[in-house]
What we know:
4 helices; alpha+beta; five-stranded antiparallel beta sheet; three-stranded mixed beta sheet; globular; Peptide Deformylase
Amino acid sequence: MILPIVAYGDPVLRKKGKEITKDYPNLDKLLENMYETMYGAYGVGLAAPQIGLPIRIFLVDTSPFADDESLTKEEQEQLQNFKRTFINAEILEEEGDEWAFNEGCLSIPNVREDVFRKPVVKIKYQDENFETHTEEFDGLLARVIQHEYDHIEGVLFTDKISSFKKRLIKGKLANISKGKISIDYRMRFPDAKKKR
């Protein structure tokens, strides 16, 4: 089932997610719905707060990035085959020189800005079977993981841009929270008190 994505301005996007246990109610169905919702909105990542749940779950499927011809064949293959569920994730290290990449977010449609992040991330998490993994990722994979991880920490990509750029997009953000935007996926707007 495709769920409505929570729009910018909803307080749930600012909450630090709580850890869950393997007996979380209907977890398999929740993950299935989250993947369906992410694909329905053409996303490469989705975090539980974006569907209104302040818990530590996010998904990543970077296969849409694999068509980028500016990437090496090895990078394309890495992105093509990467689909992962992250539960109770904790970033252990972020390393390297920060680099800019133009990011967007399903909760903040039609807004894209350059965000600086470190290129390598080491993360500990549980998969959908609650097996624990500690892995290191780099490049675009690391970037997507860091973006989704921020969601379970109550952080949005717009928090990481300059105050000048924040002023420039202030009106757009206000319109998003009021539902005054045109999008082709279901959303829930905090100020409009309605779903579309």
